[in-house]
């Protein structure tokens, strides 16, 4: 049996028009059509017209003593064992709500206020897994405007009496039902305003919105006509009444766009955004700057993924009579940005006529609670999130590609709750803009002996913050690189090569200059010396410049010539024939840095001062003290961003060296010991070095067999960072007040002076023949050998 939908609509509308003709208080008692929804029952399609109200203001208001509420307390506990969990209905899958639940966000501790026809409090869809009601029945109300008394009547009777449709139950179930809802663990706060089923006074609806705004962050009103308000009535108009409410409370009002009833009641969607321009008495509440992101209108999407034919939509300047000027075009864009699209046809949800059944309806009434539930999921994921931020995020992450790119039809696009849960913008190390680093800016390079630092479990769950200060748990261990530097023989041969040199005699002084063959007129080293004094400059130098300066054979070892430093100045002054004073200043070469520091080009500076003393003809002694100043690094630890190993670290390293010569054989030993003097934790860094000790013991032998032939063998401990105590202060999240919560973890490592590296060199040849040098090294980082063949013509 098919019924003529148009004829039914006419009869209902005519009947209601006659009923309300007698209303003489038009300004404060206006009625707005709530729109149409389609109810599917068996195989009969019935279109029913329901009217509802929006607005407020005018009239007196009283709150009588509330009666005993016991008769509408939900039955609890009940058995829910046989009730399936939600996750398979279109409103859940199309919006990706089910994927958000898998992340643990289900609307916990968030209340959704629903202004409608009440709720069947005993329907199983409003219970939790343990069989207890999720309805806040102690605050639930009915609010009715009594025309004869010109007063507001509050009661506890929030039961859905909208037979046979039970509109309020169905809408509430879509928002947060256990089986059918978007936010299946949210709390429902219903307010019943529809006492004659299809309509309610605007004063009661505004009173309900104000009441809910004081108790819930989200207010769902599947009611049309609640955005484009008439300005008639001045400060007490509907527009200003709602504006005042939303200015007073941090709540969002989610409303149905409407079902084609604003122009001609033809059930064909209308461009209602254009009413702001086409009707000079209409103001658009949603674009008021003082309540930015507190009003959303929801467009219904059908099963084919496009706007449902009945759904109202924002429209464009083409729908404005006479078109738009530049200012009006900007306003139209603002209006379009207050609309969002959501599934709204044949939505299955709770049937209020019983306690377990379901029914399918279509309409923007069904689309609105999808968005309300999405806001609840978003807010349950971050309890410090404001409702304005939640609305903004939901709009910013809506799917606006393809067909949804048309803002005049779909507003900001189709709601995508999973996308809204994801980070927006760069993840930063702090919720504050002060000393904050993006995740990609934070890297670290540490020696293998500290590999345990990268294995700390807390580093796998560190909070980083997006543009909305939402905290995300991030595994940051991939940003820590265990440094095992492979042997680079080619670089070694370049550094150790004896470049062309020029010598000039200047009275008592001799000036010698060597050049880098790979660069045009580039000076590699310069020396000015006489019998008592020596001044040397090196473009690049090794870490042990004093050792290699005093003993040229030492430069043949791979580990002694790794271009750790750039510009170097060395000065020596003989005090007596056996005693000499030496000083050196070195700056680290940035090209060597494995982790580039963007804050300061100078990563390290080393100042050395010492004495060399010839005890006997065969035995010499050296004493030196080295002051190291390092930026975001310490003895092989290098980092940047949140992995900065201290700002302006200062450490001291003392060295005692002995060298014994017998004929052409040289025995040498070197003992270093030092510690971190001071460390300033870099702003924004998680790492603080509390104390560190460093040292090295080196023992070796070298022999000159002929002017062209020599060999050497040395052993030492590879890592000079002997002991360190490091604390990590890691953000783990943000509390409800927006304060970042941290945890502090301490890490200690300890090495010894025991040698773990053996190194050998052998070089041979003759003045006019092919020459070669063989090097071999075995260290914790790498093992291998290098062979160099060269002929000078």
TrEMBL record:
Family statement drawn from the similarity comment of this UniProt entry: Belongs to the peptidase S8 family.
Keyword S-adenosyl-L-methionine among UniProt keywords: no
Domain Peptidase S8/S53 residue range list: 107-413
Gene3D superfamilies: Peptidase S8/S53 domain
Keywords (A to Z) from UniProt: Hydrolase, Protease, Serine protease
Name by which UniProt lists this protein: S8 family serine peptidase
InterPro entries, per database record: Peptidase_S8/S53_dom, Peptidase_S8/S53_dom_sf, Peptidase_S8_Asp-AS, Peptidase_S8_His-AS, Peptidase_S8_Ser-AS, Peptidase_S8_subtilisin-like, Peptidase_S8_subtilisin-rel
Active-site residues, as the UniProt record annotates them: 116, 167, 365
């Amino acid at each position: 049996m098919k019924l003529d939908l148009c004829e039914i609509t006419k009869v209902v509308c005519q009947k209601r028009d006659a009923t309300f003709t007698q209303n003489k208080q038009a300004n404060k008692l206006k009625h707005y059509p709530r729109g149409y929804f389609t109810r599917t029952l068996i195989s009969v399609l019935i279109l029913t017209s329901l009217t509802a109200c929006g607005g407020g203001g005018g009239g007196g208001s009283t709150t009588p003593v509330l009666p005993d509420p016991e008769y509408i307390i939900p039955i609890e506990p009940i058995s829910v064992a046989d009730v399936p969990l939600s996750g398979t209905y279109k409103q859940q899958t199309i919006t990706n709500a089910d994927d958000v639940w898998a992340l643990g966000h289900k609307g916990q501790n968030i209340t959704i206020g629903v202004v409608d026809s009440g709720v069947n409090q005993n329907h199983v869809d409003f219970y939790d897994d343990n069989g207890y009601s999720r309805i806040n029945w102690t605050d639930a109300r009915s609010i009715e405007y009594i025309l004869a008394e010109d007063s507001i009547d509050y009661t506890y009777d929030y039961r859905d009496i909208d037979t046979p449709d039970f509109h309020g139950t169905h809408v509430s179930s879509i928002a947060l039902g256990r089986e059918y809802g978007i936010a299946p663990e949210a709390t429902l706060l219903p307010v019943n305003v529809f006492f004659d089923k299809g309509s309610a006074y605007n004063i009661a609806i505004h009173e309900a919105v104000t009441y809910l705004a004081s108790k819930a962050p989200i207010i769902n009103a599947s009611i049309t006509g609640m955005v484009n308000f008439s300005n008639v009535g001045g400060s007490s108009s509907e527009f200003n009444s709602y504006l005042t409410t939303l200015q007073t409370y941090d709540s969002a009002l989610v409303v149905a766009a409407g079902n084609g009833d604003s122009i001609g009641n033809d059930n064909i969607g209308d461009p209602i955004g254009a009413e702001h321009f086409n009707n000079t008495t209409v103001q658009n509440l949603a674009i008021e700057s003082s309540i930015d992101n507190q009003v959303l209108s929801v467009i219904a999407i059908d099963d084919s993924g496009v706007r449902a034919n009945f759904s109202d939509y924002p429209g464009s300047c083409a729908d404005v009579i006479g078109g738009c000027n530049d200012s009006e075009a900007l306003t139209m864009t603002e209006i379009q940005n207050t609309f969002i699209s959501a599934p709204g046809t044949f939505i299955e949800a709770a049937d209020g006529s019983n306690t377990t059944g379901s029914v399918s309806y279509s309409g923007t009434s069904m689309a609105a609670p999808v968005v309300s539930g999405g806001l609840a999921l978003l807010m349950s994921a971050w309890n410090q999130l404001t409702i304005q931020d939640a609305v903004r995020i939901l709009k910013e992450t809506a799917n606006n590609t393809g067909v949804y790119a048309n803002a005049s039809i779909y507003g900001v696009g189709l709601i995508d709750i999973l996308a809204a849960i994801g980070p927006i913008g760069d993840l930063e190390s702090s919720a504050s803009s002060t000393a904050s680093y993006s995740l990609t800016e934070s890297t670290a390079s540490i020696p293998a002996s500290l590999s345990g630092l990268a294995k700390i479990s807390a580093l796998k769950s560190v909070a980083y913050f997006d543009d909305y200060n939402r905290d995300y748990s991030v595994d940051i261990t991939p940003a820590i690189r265990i440094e095992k530097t492979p042997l680079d023989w080619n670089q070694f041969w370049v550094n150790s090569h004896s470049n062309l040199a020029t010598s000039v005699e200047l009275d008592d002084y001799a000036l010698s200059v060597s050049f880098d063959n790979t660069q045009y007129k580039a000076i590699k080293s310069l020396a000015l010396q006489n019998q008592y004094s020596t001044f040397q400059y090196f473009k690049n130098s090794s870490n042990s410049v004093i050792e290699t300066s005093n003993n040229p054979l030492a430069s043949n070892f791979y580990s002694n010539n790794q271009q750790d430093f750039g510009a170097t100045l060395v000065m020596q002054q003989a005090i007596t024939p056996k005693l000499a004073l030496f000083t050196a200043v070195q700056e680290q070469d940035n090209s060597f840095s494995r982790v580039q520091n963007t804050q300061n080009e100078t990563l390290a500076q080393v100042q050395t001062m010492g004495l060399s003393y010839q005890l006997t003809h065969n035995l010499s002694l050296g004493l030196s003290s080295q002051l190291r100043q390092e930026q975001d690094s310490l003895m092989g630890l290098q980092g940047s961003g949140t992995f900065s190993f201290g700002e302006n670290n200062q450490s001291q390293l003392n060295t005692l060296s002995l060298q014994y010569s017998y004929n052409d054989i040289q025995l040498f030993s070197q003992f270093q010991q030092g510690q971190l003097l001071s460390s300033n934790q870099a702003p924004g860094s998680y790492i603080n070095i509390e104390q560190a000790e460093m040292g090295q013991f080196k023992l070796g032998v070298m022999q000159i067999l002929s002017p062209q032939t020599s060999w050497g063998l040395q052993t030492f401990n590879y890592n000079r960072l002997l002991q360190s105590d490091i604390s990590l202060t890691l953000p783990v999240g943000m509390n409800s007040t927006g304060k970042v919560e941290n945890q502090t973890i301490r890490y200690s490592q300890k090495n010894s002076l025991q040698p773990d590296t053996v190194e050998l060199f052998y070089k041979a040849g003759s003045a006019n023949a092919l020459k070669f040098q063989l090097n071999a090294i075995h260290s914790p980082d790498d093992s291998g050998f290098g062979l160099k063949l060269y002929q000078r013509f």
